[in-house]
Amino acid sequence: MIQEGSVFVLRSSEHLPHYHIVIFRDPLNRESANIVLYLTSTETKPDRTCEFNRGDDFFISKYSWVKYRNCKVIFDIDLEPLECIGVASDKTMRKIKTGFDHALQQGKIVDDAKDLFFKWKDDLLYSKMND
Amino acid sequence: MIEKGNAKALSKSDAYCSNLTFNEEKAISVLSYLCALAHNKLNHYKAAKLMYLYDREVLLETGEPAFFGQHFSLPAGPIVSEVNNAIKSCLKDELDTYFDWKRYFKLNEQNHQLSQTNSEELYYSGLLSDEDRLRLTNLYNKYKSHDFGAMREVMHALPEHIELTGDERRKPLSYRHILEKNGFTPEQIEELLSEIAYENLFCIVTNQL
User: Fold this and answer.
1) Considering the domain A6-130 in this protein, what is its CATH number?
2) Where along chain B do its domains lie?
3) ipTM score of the complex?
């Protein structure tokens, strides 16, 4: 069951693990799409918008940062080849979402993800107004 | 893609990066935006060069290329091979190419002008960010007045360009070479190549390409 905060890894013997996190899902559960970001520990050309240190969450074993420029809309079915290893903490999610707002202002998020994010925000607002 | 003489220094990442899957939709989105900036009249040569300049600028500034294509130095300067082939596929009678971008662009053989088939549309615009559009606008404005000769000089002055000798028609430009010639250390290059290979693999696995 995919949810906001679900952490995925792509098991590959050739690469160090990267942690892919579902940061937004359709709040009304109508779409099987996810806005997904990943953490990388590369020290070259880091984006300082949202950084983590070893132990900040169960899956973070070294300095990592969120690659907002590679934010993607991924459907549930396309996440199937990845392994879900758990759910990120509320603290981690708050931090990544705050970073997402900054990344939006900095223009780093591609339109597909940005548009879906704002659509879901509006959908939620309208659904609450109609309740 | 692998340069002779460097075989010992090549890593697994080099091997992966010599065989990446080209991000065709991203390339179409970028070319579409460039056409819009040029009021739908973009010189063929300039289009190919701007696409290369954009790709290498993204690589040098963010650590990842935009298109994941293969680069080559040609007599008129570096290019992204797939982009060049794809642009050629827009010629009216061109059939012999792997790509077919005719439904997006048309290339006029007489005046070498590239234009969108539908000037009202921006193809795959969802793949661009505001940062991408700003980078493309700056790049276009910087070179919009450059003629062929001036553009050729710009391309030949790039640190990574390899001058061809004798009857050489092209030389591969690996990501390692481009990064090396632009001041990245061997350790940084190794990290970036690994990241590039991973991102490309992830996109393939999750059907993003």
Assistant:
1) 2.30.30
2) 24-182
3) 0.94
